[in-house]
Amino acid sequence: MNLSMKWLSDYVDIDVTPKQFSDDMTMSGSKVEGYTDEAAEIKNVVVGKLLSVEQHPNADHLVVCMVDVGEGEPIQICTGANNVKAGDIVPVAKHGSTLPGGVNIRKGKLRGMESNGMLCSLEELGLTTHDFPYADAEGIFLLQGEDANHPLGTDICTAIGLNDITVEFEITPNRPDCLSVLGLAREAAVTYNVPLKAKAPVVKGAGDDIANFLKVQVENPQLCPRYMAKVVKNVRIAPSPRWMRERLRASGVRPINNIVDITNYVMLEYGQPMHAADLRYIKDGEIIVRNAHEGEHVTTLDGVERQLTPDMLLITTPETISQVAGIMGSRYSGIQEDTTTVFFESANFNGPSIRSTARKLGMRTESSGKYEKGLDPATCLPAILRACELVELLDAGDVVDGIIDVDHSPKDQRQIKLDPQYINTFLGTENIPERFMREKLAQLGFGLEGDIITVPSYRADVEGKADIAEEVARFYGYNNIPSTIIRGAAAAQLTLRQKFERRLGQLLLSLGLDEITTFSFISPKYYDKIHLPADSALRQSVEILNPLGVDTSVMRTTAVPSMMEVLARNYNYRNMDVRLYEMATEYLPVEGEALPLERNKLILGIYGGQDFFTLKGIIETILENIGIADYDLRQVKDNPIYHPGRCAELIIEGDVVGILGEVHPNVAENYELGNIRCYVADLDVGTLFAHYCADKEYTPLPRFPAAQRDIAVLCDDDLPVQELERAVKNAVGKVLEKIMLFDVYKGSQIPAGKKSVAFNLVLRQPDKTITDEQCEQAMKKALNALNSLGAELRN
Amino acid sequence: MKEALNNILATAKAELSQVAEAKALDEIRVKYLGKKGELTAILKQMGSLSAEERPVIGQLANEIRAHIEDSIAFTGAQLREKLLARRLEEEKLDVTLPGQKSLIGHQHPLNIVLDEIKEIFLGMGFDVVHGPEVELDYYNFEALNLPKDHPARDVQDTFYINDTVLLRTQTSPVQVRTMEQQKPPIRIIAPGRVYRSDEVDATHSPMFHQIEGLVVDKGVTMADLKGTLEVFVKRLYGEDSQVRFRPHHFPFTEPSAELDVMCFHCHGEGCRLCKGEGWIEILGCGMVHPKVLQNCGIDPEIYSGFAFGMGLERIVMRRYNIDDLRLLYDNDIRFLEQF
Predict the structure, then answer these.
(1) Sheet holding B207-217, edge to edge
(2) Does domain A707-793 have CATH number 3.40.50.720?
(3) Which of A28, A520, A544 sits opposite B193 (nearest CB)?
(4) What is the ipTM of this complex?
(5) Domain ranges in chain A with CATH number 3.30.70.380
(6) Fewer CB atoms < 10 Å away: N or C end of chain A?
(7) Residues of chain B contacting residue A567, judged by C-beta atoms under 8 Å apart
(8) How far is A220 from chain B (nearest CA, A)?
(9) Which residue of A has its CA nearest to B270?
């Protein structure tokens, strides 16, 4: 909402700088986005009079003017314009002046003749013929009438009224009343504690009777709670006066002619959209407010043909559609140069209905923008009277007596009890006097009888005592409310799960992995990209009805593609060693439930200078650190995302926690990662947490020395080392403190299909030094166990 | 003999002064003091001396032996020092050569700041709770006093899943879920991802993060809201930061406010960073709307509360001077490893 400060001064007397005004209004609840000074870009341009206009001696297309700029000596200026003559009053940009767009004017010579400035056109002042209809669009702006009636040398902005300040407000949706000069003036009056100079419009009338011109029938009072009309005959279309054009311009509305300008003026001033229609297009003067018929269409004023649906409200005549209610007129409604009789419509329409229609038709207009917020039906009357008052003031026509008012709007007024005690307690203030509360409420237009507050109809947002507290608070000043600490102690802490997740994060960081954050929505094509089987349940995603694009159209059921995208992007950036993790959420639709299951995953992704065992090592380090000693890794050969020979499931006490492996070369190729090997793990955080052991118990440090023995065996290449290890552990029992693999060898001296595996065993007794004999026994047991798996001692 | 003894001392000293390495020193020790050494050879002749001469020569011989031993020890010490000095000189490093860095990961900047914010609120007695991101329209809008045709719904362009399910546009639905499940006193923050259909650009993203806060108890006042959030801002931005509360509108709070922090750059004068306003908007807040309390089965005549919500991305971007929001979701390690 753009507010003209000149217009505001009709209603309140305040004398503050625009900056101060902006700050004060912002702090009382009307947020100012900024302000602009129309004259800011124009400096040192004055009213001048042409004393003489002579042909330039050296140029056919130039003339040399002597200009009186009120400085005694006239100045000489050359111009190429051909619409000037001696005696004209013109804007003169003197030496050292500036014009809109940062143009600087300096003196100089034009074809040998001195020129001490420039005569300005409308355009050079940033104006159009809409602002000054009498002016020539092309040539020099020749001032006329009141514009010319100034001492020579007067600043041009002052002379032609190009000196308004426009303050731009951000109005929140709960305050449609502030989408008007009057509404903001009321707020300003309360902010500055000055009277609001509001006056009821007065219409003299020119006799006759509206019944002779118009009758109105409203078929759907739900969508049109109120419809008012006034008729003006003998319309005299002309430009509106300067003061009106000025205010429209400052408000960002282009002046057209007196009747159209009046509708815009009243809409800006009262916030009530106003429509003027040429009565000659209203067959038999009959207006029917009705819903559109199935299949009906209309060509709106902007020349676009629009398809209508039965939920849309129309203003019609028996033969034509005059208007899509509250949004835009049809081509049968516009005001023409030869219009002689018009009727003004001041109506109230159902906000949500207007909003829905405007959306469906894809046209948001100034009018619909106001209606959809929900306007006050009571404003229809003063607004239409104001329009007629302006018609008389501008002598734009003769206002016919009588008014049409089809009013179905609710008349009940909301009442709230004034409770100063509650307000002070609620705000934590204790000392705002009741007198202050009453005064501010009264200034805002609330009625007060005893303790009963009557809410004005234009404040539909005020529903209860908390709203009254807000009205008081914002004028008392939010920043005058004290700052206190909430009473009572509160013992907060992270949950065990939250602590677990934090610990996981710390571990991953200390293991050198960088944390990433990715979007939760992906393209369904990403499932193909990771070769997810066609029948995988993970292809059933939560789909977004109105996505921005296919790439963000479904909620991911697996976060692996997000990781792959990031790995690919980093590779593309030529980042060579990459270790990443994400605590990612996956969204799994659940049969029979409205909402999906949101599951937390830990996704790891690495490439460059790493291998499968780097990834496994990271996971094992984490498991060890979170107290999970018992786990299995089971080879997985048939997951198409992963390399069939380099993929494993992590199993803890029978629960599958997730999967880790080298990304299948075909999948890697899809991400243009074909040249490198990358490794991904996909672990379920909840399952990990279920096995997490936060409590640790200390094991006494050994008091007796340990013995170490090595053993190397030859076995089938397919035999997992884990099985050998496990067999040794089981066979040797307690004395085996630790078994460590230190070599796996295939190659020369090893028969094909076999491998050599070497372990180091640490043997210890808790209560005495272990003897050589005991060690030998242990090693014998170990070898027997290995033999039983088909592994033979290697010499 | 006396003369011979003095001679031994003189030659031993002369030889010692020439010693340059440990081996030569050892040779001297053997030559003079060893079992077959010169001094021993002389002492072996002691038997031929008279009874008067024997103690005199014996004493002299002992003195000379002690003298030579001391000299050898002294020279040895000198030698070791010299050798050490040489070694230290030889081992000199160019300390400006690069160090060997240990591999360490980098937390995402969003989570660095989020952790900090969580710490602050945990310290003030706020638990951390979470709610679903795919949410019912009821929780995201209706229960928050935003009925179906409410114009404020336009402000938040929503991704819908169907008529009743959507991607939450704010973390505020967690307020409602918390109040439904927990009776006052309530003191929580709820961080999380939220979604709005904004095209990606330098300042917009269809997915971003918010942190919601809610306090409900008997006698909670707007002054408490101010006090709590002022403490938060001072902990986040420093004790000297200035805040102001500016009236605003949210359908689910009444009164509502926005909290501004005085521009760190211009200190309220107005500059490019704060778009000339002198203040930077940090969060929205307000007293929980009585209708919202009612919708959650909490009697607004007995209880009151306040709520607040802030965007994490903007706080992070300002903290690190990040000028393009897309960097946060691009996950280029050259970016991530700066934090």
Answers:
(1) B127-128, B186-195, B207-217, B304-311, B279-288, B253-262, B243-250
(2) no
(3) A520
(4) 0.88
(5) 707-793
(6) C
(7) none
(8) 19
(9) A19
Residue A333: pLDDT over 80: no
CATH dotted code for A496-691? 3.30.930.10
| Per-residue CA distances from A754 to A647, A714, A719 (Å) | 21, 7, 9
Q: C-alpha distances in angstroms, A483 versus B221, B255, B268? A: 10, 16, 21
B167/A544 touch (CB, cutoff 8 Å), yes or no: yes
In chain A, residues under CATH classification 2.40.50.140 are 43-160
Give ∠ CA A299-A305-A309 in degrees, rounded to 5.
Answer: 95
**Which CATH code fits A11-35+168-192?**
3.30.56.10
| Helix or strand run (H / E) with residue A8 | helix A5-8
Query: B115 contacts in A (CB within 8 Å)?
Result: 502
Q: Which of A487, A514, A588, A600 to mutate to test the interface with B (most CBs of B within 10 A)?
A: A514
pLDDT band at B155 (very low <50, low <70, confident <90, very high): low
Give tens-digit pLDDT for A372-390: 888 999 999 999 999 999 9
Nearest residue to A77 via CA among A98, A99, A56, A60: A56
For the residues B118-136, what does the mean pLDDT come to? 96
Is B255 within 8 Å of A596 when comparing Cβ atoms? no
Entry pTM: 0.87
B 256-285 residues inside an 8 A Cβ radius of A: 256-257, 275-276
How many of the other CB atoms lie within 10 Å of CB of A275? 22
What pLDDT digit, counting tens, does each position of A711-731 carry? 999 999 999 898 999 999 999
Select from B148, B182, B333 the residue whose CB has the most chain A CBs within 10 Å, as the one to mutate to test that interface.
Answer: B333
Q: Which residues of A touch B245 (CB under 8 A)?
A: 478-479, 481
* Per-residue pLDDT tens digits for A75-85: 999 999 889 99
Architecture of domain A43-160: Beta Barrel (2.40)
Average pLDDT over residues A216-236: 96
The topology under which CATH files domain A210-407 is Phenylalanyl-tRNA Synthetase; Chain B, domain 3 (3.50.40)
* Interchain contact, B329 vs A542, CB within 8 Å: no
User: Is B44 at the interface with chain A, CB within 8 A?
Assistant: no
Q: Is A503 exposed, middle or buried (0-12, 13-18, 19+ CB in 10 A)?
A: middle
CATH superfamily of this structure's domain B109-336:
Bira Bifunctional Protein; Domain 2 (3.30.930.10)
* Chain B residues lying within 8 Å of A587, measured CB to CB: 133-134
